[in-house]
Amino acid sequence: MNRIPWDKILSFTALDFAKLLLSALIIVIVTKIQLVSDRLSALLIALPLTSLVAMVWMHHGGQSAQRLANHAEGTFWFVLPTLPMFLIIPWMLRNGWTFWTTIAVNCLLTVAFFWLTVIVLRRFGIDLMPK
């Protein structure tokens, strides 16, 4: 993670826009399904669709098997600190917290849980944030 190549990151091709549209379409469809069924939309969101689509795009872009494996493993570890949010948000909303306050608090908590996860995993030889 030396110098970030912003020129590569911020340059968009026609394929990038197609990826954007397909990825956004998935989100729109799931939010439309939520109008009919909270549980079905929750199931669809719980599926790692975003990760799978990203890995398809990475594979299509010529990324190595090692890079895809690193991505999948990193995704597993990075999901863990987000899980408490899915229990804390409903508790806060049901106990009178406003939506935006709930979101802000959970963003801060998730950042704290993220760094806690990084610190704990380093003790077990797993470095999510190499220097």
Topology:
Blueprint: H1 6-9, H2 14-34, H3 38-46, H4 49-60, H5 65-79, H6 85-94, H7 99-123
Summarize model confidence as the mean pLDDT. 90
Helical content class: over 70%
Radius of gyration: 18 Å
Q: How much strand content do the residues show?
A: under 5%
- Unreliable stretches, pLDDT < 50, 5 or more residues? none
Biggest sheet layout: none
User: Can you count the beta strands?
Assistant: 0
Total DSSP helices? 7
Alpha-beta content class: mainly alpha
Give the CA-CA distance, first to last residue: 7 Å
What is the 3D form? globular
Series of secondary-structure elements, N-terminal to C-terminal: HHHHHHH
Put the structure in a nutshell.
With 131 residues, this protein is mainly alpha-helical. The protein has seven helices and no strands.
Explain what the structure shows.
It is a single chain. Helices cover 73% and strands 0% of the residues. It is globular and about 45 Å long. The model has no long low-confidence stretch (mean pLDDT 90). The protein is an all-alpha fold.
Key structural traits:
mainly alpha, globular, 7 helices, 131 residues
